[in-house]
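Appendix C: a fully annotated inverse folding record. The material below is reproduced so that readers can follow the format used throughout the book. The structure is listed first as tokens, followed by the designed sequence.
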């Protein structure tokens, strides 16, 4: 399994990402995650929709909170052909509590806490913290990754405009 030292930073401190880096044009790995009710969910369950997968360290941090709320707002305007997922290592119970408190109802939160299968398969598992790096993956209706954004400094927000532009291009 590939290790990419210094691939991301947290407050300027370099961190190592574990797993092979997913690039545009590659099939999205079909990992199994847990939903808020502890039910297994595969990424292939969303085939037929344009998929935004937002990988975040923890919903209980300010930047992840802002990012997920922003994607919830964006999702409302993208229509039923788009599904937004936020994946973190948070326990499903914590994700459910956070969604309820934040009023997030358009984004589906999924947990990678059990095996870190998503983190390894997408190459975003932070070795030193066993958290996920802040990254965005956009897959087309067939499950092919068409856009990737890795946020170098984990404490910063992604470029939302670029993500939404990639999605709209797939919807056209």
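Designed amino acids, in order:
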């Amino acid at each position: 399994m590939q290790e990419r030292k210094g691939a991301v930073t947290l407050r300027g401190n370099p961190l190592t990402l574990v797993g092979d880096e997913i690039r545009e044009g590659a099939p999205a790995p079909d990992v199994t995650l847990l939903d808020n009710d502890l039910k297994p969910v595969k990424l292939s369950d969303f085939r037929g929709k344009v998929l935004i997968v937002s990988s975040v360290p923890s919903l209980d941090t300010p930047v992840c909170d802002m990012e997920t709320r922003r994607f919830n707002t964006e999702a409302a305007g993208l229509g039923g052909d788009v599904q937004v997922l936020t994946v973190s290592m948070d326990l499903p119970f914590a994700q459910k509590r956070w969604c309820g408190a934040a009023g997030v109802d358009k984004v589906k939160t999924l947990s990678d806490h059990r095996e870190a299968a998503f983190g390894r398969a997408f190459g975003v598992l932070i070795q030193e913290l066993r958290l996920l790096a802040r990254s965005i993956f956009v897959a087309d209706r067939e499950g092919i990754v068409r856009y990737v954004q890795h946020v170098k400094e984990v404490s910063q927000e992604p470029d939302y405009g670029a993500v939404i532009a990639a999605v709209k291009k797939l919807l056209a």
